[in-house]
Design goal:
Elements: E1 6-11, H1 16-25, E2 31-37, H2 46-49, E3 61-62, E4 74-77, H3 88-93, E5 97-100, H4 110-117, E6 131-132, H5 135-143, E7 147-149, H6 153-168, E8 176-182, H7 197-200, E9 205-206, H8 214-226, E10 232-238, E11 245-252, H9 260-268, E12 274-276, E13 294-300, E14 306-313, H10 317-331
Parallel strand pairs: 1-2, 1-4, 2-3, 4-5, 5-7, 6-7, 8-10, 12-13
Antiparallel strand pairs: 8-11, 9-10, 11-14, 13-14
């Protein structure tokens, strides 16, 4: 990669993941933010909406059809689902690389995507060409990709938690459970009654129990990891915090005398953004808040062959914007950690 800075565009820059992208990109030493778009805030200065970026960014919002997008080296889509699929083909034809943070290209089968998202897919020919952007799993493919489908937040935490077990074939694939909790920012910045402070505060509830849109993405990824179909029970919960995903994962071991801790440490020893904690540790979401890190701890249930894996991430960073930048770095041959060398925010 040359020393010339990348010309970057962000489509849908007023949502939580969009502004998180901007927060991280302004500190990236090889990025120039060329255009940011928002149909609702067109012609407003970004800093008039997000004063946190004052002094870092001097751009106005353009609309989603801005011709400046075709001048970029890479464009991030932080749009609602069923939006990017209409715009990405044209940018790919203009030799612009894409990192899509929506779900539009995460599933490989158009009919499955249409079932879960309720509309016809506008670019089904690209589904098989899109690379699933989990670096710990697909680093080599990401390096060659023109279109990267950035994983969802729940799928990231859950896949990283199960990955070593699936690759080594040491668990029963028919009894997997993922009990996951998310902060309210995971629902996006839209106005919704259930996300109001008085509705979300001082309570704790499950949602999407009958079927969450991340379920097919998780099952697809876990099946690829294991080489065969998996049966997963996935129940997400909303907790009264802004950021964070805490996934508690359950699996039955099918082999005795396996050193699981050693397995995890060996699998992730060279991964800059997976931290395997000492056996018996208790990770918490505060330890990853604002960072691109996934922290994992392993527990063995008493007098049982059941394994419990605890996996925590920041849903807006490793679960969205940070992982997207990690993918961009890989796509352009940059240092993978560039722009992401940030410790968690404490307290």
């Amino acid at each position: 990669m040359s020393s010339k800075n990348l010309k970057v565009g962000v489509v849908g820059a007023t949502g939580y993941t969009g502004v998180e992208l901007l927060r991280l990109l302004v500190g990236h030493e090889q990025v120039d933010i060329h255009v940011v778009t928002s149909n609702t805030e067109k012609d407003q200065y970004v800093t008039d909406i997000f004063s946190s970026l004052s002094g870092y960014l001097d751009l106005k919002f353009s609309d989603h059809d801005s011709p400046e997008l075709k001048e970029c080296d890479v464009v991030f889509f932080a749009t609602p689902h069923a939006t990017s699929m209409y715009k990405i083909p044209e940018l790919l034809n203009a030799s612009v690389k894409i990192v899509d943070l929506s779900a539009d290209f995460r599933l490989q089968k158009a009919e499955e995507w249409e079932h879960w998202y309720g509309v016809k897919h506008a670019a089904p020919e690209l589904l098989k060409k899109a690379v699933y952007g989990l670096p710990e799993m697909n680093r080599q493919q990401i390096a060659k990709a023109d279109l990267v489908a950035n994983p969802g937040c729940y799928p990231t935490a859950i896949t990283l938690g199960f990955l070593p077990l699936l690759e080594n074939g040491v668990i029963d694939l028919n009894t997997l459970i993922a009990d996951a909790k998310s902060g309210v920012s995971g629902a996006g910045r839209k106005a919704a009654m259930e996300n109001l402070f008085s509705e979300a505060s001082e309570t704790f509830k499950a949602y999407g129990v009958a079927g969450h849109r991340h379920l097919p993405e998780i099952c697809q990824t876990l099946s690829i990891c294991s080489g065969q179909a998996v049966d997963l029970t996935f129940v997400p919960h909303l907790v009264p915090m802004v950021r964070g995903i805490f996934a508690t994962l359950y699996a039955h071991l099918n082999q005795a005398n396996v050193d699981i801790s050693k397995m995890y440490k060996a699998r992730y020893i060279d991964e800059p953004y997976v931290d395997v904690l000492p056996e018996g540790s208790q990770p918490d979401t505060r330890s990853v808040r604002g960072s691109n890190m996934c922290r994992i701890a392993i527990h063995k249930a008493q007098n049982s062959d059941k394994l419990i894996v605890l996996s925590v991430i920041d849903n807006l960073v490793k679960g969205a914007a940070g992982q997207a930048i990690q993918n961009m770095n890989i796509m352009f041959g940059l240092d993978e950690v560039m722009g992401l060398k940030l410790p968690a925010i404490y307290p």
